[in-house]
Amino acid sequence: LSLSLLVIGLDNTILNVALPTLQAEFSSTASQLQWMVDSYILVFAGLLLTLGAVGDRFGRAKALQAGLLIFAGASIWAAFAPTAGQLIAARAVMGIGGAFIMPATLSIIIHVFPEEERGRAISIWAGVAGLGIGLGPVTGGLLLEHFWWGSVFLINVPIALLAIAGGLLFIPESRDPDATALDLPGGVLSMAAVSALVFAIIEAPSKGWLDPLVAGGLVLALVLGVGFAIRELRTADL
Q1: Are 55 and 182 in contact (CB under 8 A)?
Q2: CB atoms < 10 A from the CB of 147, how many?
Q3: Is the separation of the CB atoms in 160 and 144 below 8 Å?
Q4: Helix (H, G, I), strand (E, B) or coil at 153
Q5: d(CA 36, CA 17)
Q6: Element (H, E) at 71
Q7: What whole-number distance in Å separates Cα of residue 10 and Cα of residue 128?
Q8: For residues 46 and 194, is the Cβ–Cβ distance under 8 A?
Q9: What angle is formed at CA 68 by the lines to CA 63 and CA 72, rounded to 5 degrees?
Q10: pLDDT tens, residue by residue, 77-110
Q11: Contact at 8 Å (CB) between 17 and 140?
Q12: Staple 4 to which of 62, 142, 143, 163, CB 3.0 to 4.6 Å?
């Protein structure tokens, strides 16, 4: 579980040190460089709640394995992406994998560990997440010094494969016994609301908070969030 979480923390920061190299490689604009980082964050944040509910309903171990496979596959795509646009798309797909992985790891910990061990297990889980974020720039710098830029993505693959193997050996399947049917309208509303909010926050530093695009994103996030709340008050589905 810690290995599974490590790739998410690592990938949040490892790309930052590679941006100058990627700018030279693809002759990227400032906007393209920004979206190489932000496409991952936007998709990850938008899908986190919904894919966590999918794992609770259909199997957390399966969701974790699926997320790791998606993450590893998208990392290979990113490493060999021929254009900036494909790299941005690959990063977005990595966000899908991350949104499967993170909620599944925490749900599995809560299910597997008894109450007296759960606090220590969650502390290790949180510590590894922070470790991955801290190791990202250092690892990225070392890889770029000795290898080509794609290595900052390929580093995810062996970690993900080890996590998949460990999961098959040690992680039991579990589901939420009280899970209701998936609330697809609610899921769409939550994804759209979070995505609009994160998009506005991402764009605000460069465009300004009063920019029509940013202000529109914030208003849209508020409207969708209210719609999500109303929907959840009227349905028993998750």
Answers
A1: no
A2: 12
A3: no
A4: helix
A5: 12
A6: helix 60-79
A7: 10
A8: yes
A9: 150
A10: 999 999 989 999 999 999 999 999 988 998 899 8
A11: yes
A12: 163
